[in-house]
Amino acid sequence: MDEAAAQRGLLLHAAGALGVATEKDLRDYFRLAPGDSRARLAELLEEGALQACTVQAWPQPAYCLASLRVPRTVSSSALLSPFDSLVWERERTERLFDFRYRLEIYTPAHKRVYGYYVLPFLHNERIAARVDLRAERAHERLTVHAVHEEQPGLDEAGMQALAESLQRMAAWLGLAEVQLNCPRASAARLRVALASSRFSDVPA
């Protein structure tokens, strides 16, 4: 495979992962050079593998796979790693979700806005909350230090989905429990959701 073909393959892979994206979004997914990316994008458009599309409020042209099928609704929930491809390109995340996300690990404690190690919580078609977590392995627990809901907040189903996502994360990390250590009103609702969670491998 020559270099140009490899670059086309990388752009197609990026388009499949991102769904809809600008040229810069596609290029940044695999850190391609701008000149190479634009040339390969033009080739893929001419071949019909990619198609141009319009996203409301995006000033730049957007692109997607010609074979893309958009579901009527999305029903899924997940805690996102800071390095998840949905959020690693912060400017794109803000464009898609109106969600400003920054790691505050290296921010002095008194200057942090949301917490030391905050994970976005994706629920259905929006990023609905952010959660400050710490895995305390010596105590075999996943501690929730803060829950910050994004407007308009989490409904009962959303809070239940967050509880189950936290319990799944604790189980994945080999931790015995999820502990709440936050004063916000959200914590009381989350405590109830943890107690009634269908995912019972990890106690609250």
Automatic annotation (TrEMBL):
Q: What is this protein called?
A: Winged helix-turn-helix domain-containing protein
- Can you name the source organism? Pseudomonas wadenswilerensis
